[in-house]
Inverse folding.
């Protein structure tokens, strides 16, 4: 079994979104209860620091973060129809980003090969200068930029949240040092992430959007991971793999229409762990969405357990997985930038 580290912080409980909001403190309470009752699945639990101003400013301009701080200092308020802050929301977001960066430090110093950053608010919708979709600071983007700047490695970000990670997409769209891959339901909020969006400038080809229709389940998500994303990892050879791990593609989640199961999340996590291990890269999970508490706790638990298995142990679970037509189409579509995705007989 592989040793892992998990970062958390009590400030996640202080981000108050009010009664009836789906992104609520009960998410962290449920995860804490479920994981602590199972001795945190063998992960070493550590307290998350706040991200430094420099780490945050590498992604979010100070004028934007100053505005968030001022809003929270005044007691908080609504930013848009979905996104709300309270007095402690910026502190919670600082620790969410800081936990992701601290996880990166542990992984890239070789102190662990797998990790998790379990915080709220989520982050992948936050653009450089815009909060949206429940998100204030883009934690996975801050962590990826920290890895690039502090360690000089290339980073692959795999986003399996059911909603497209528009913020991460746009922050790295022109940066070849970060490979961004997203599997997301479409059409669905925020309405971004078409397959044709492949990045721009120096980042052309390093944005990989894999939209799927409502009703998509394990056979679709797992095939896109195994037949598209894992081969991309082999071609790209990142020094770090980060998973933007939302659990709202689960069949039980109320905010979308996909049908992924607990077993599907385990299979995706195991396949990504094996793909990362094949290029010598550690893997870190950054919590995003997931709004049915049972699905959230089971999905994250299944993913964390799968990651702890020794590399290669996922082979039997994924053996014989049929390639979904969307994966076949994606390989063909991406072949001009990633020739290795197409077998010689298909060229």
């Amino acid at each position: 079994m592989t040793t892992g580290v998990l970062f958390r912080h009590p400030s996640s409980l202080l981000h108050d979104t009010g009664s009836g909001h789906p992104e609520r403190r009960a998410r962290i309470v449920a995860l804490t209860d479920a994981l602590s009752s199972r001795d945190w699945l063998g992960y070493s639990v550590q307290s998350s620091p706040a991200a430094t101003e420099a780490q945050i400013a590498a992604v979010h301009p100070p004028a934007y973060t100053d505005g968030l701080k001022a809003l929270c200092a005044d007691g908080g308020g609504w930013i848009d129809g979905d996104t709300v802050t309270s007095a402690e929301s910026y502190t919670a977001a600082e620790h969410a980003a800081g936990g992701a960066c601290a996880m990166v430090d542990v992984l890239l110093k070789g102190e662990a090969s797998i990790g998790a950053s379990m915080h709220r608010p989520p982050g992948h919708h936050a653009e450089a200068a815009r909060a949206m979709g429940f998100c204030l600071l883009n934690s996975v983007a801050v962590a990826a930029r920290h890895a690039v700047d502090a360690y000089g490695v290339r980073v692959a970000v795999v986003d399996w949240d059911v909603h497209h990670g528009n913020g991460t997409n746009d922050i790295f769209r022109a940066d070849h040092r970060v490979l961004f891959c997203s599997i997301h339901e479409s059409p669905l909020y925020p309405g971004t992430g078409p397959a044709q969006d492949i990045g721009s400038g120096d980042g052309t080809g390093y944005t990989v959007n894999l939209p799927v229709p409502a009703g998509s389940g394990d056979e679709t998500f797992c095939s896109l991971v195994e037949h598209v994303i894992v081969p991309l990892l082999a071609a790209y050879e990142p020094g770090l793999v980060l998973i933007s791990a939302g659990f709202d593609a689960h069949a039980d989640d109320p905010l979308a229409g996909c049908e992924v199961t607990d077993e599907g999340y385990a299979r995706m996590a195991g396949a990504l762990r094996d793909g990362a291990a094949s290029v010598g890269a550690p893997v870190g999970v950054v919590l995003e969405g997931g709004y049915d508490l049972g699905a959230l706790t089971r999905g994250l638990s299944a993913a964390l357990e799968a990651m702890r298995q020794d590399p290669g142990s996922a082979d039997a679970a994924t053996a014989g997985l049929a390639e979904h037509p969307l994966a076949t189409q994606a390989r063909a579509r991406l072949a001009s930038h990633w020739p290795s995705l197409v077998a010689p007989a298909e060229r």
Q: What stands out?
A: The radius of gyration is 18 Å. The longest strand covers residues 178-185.
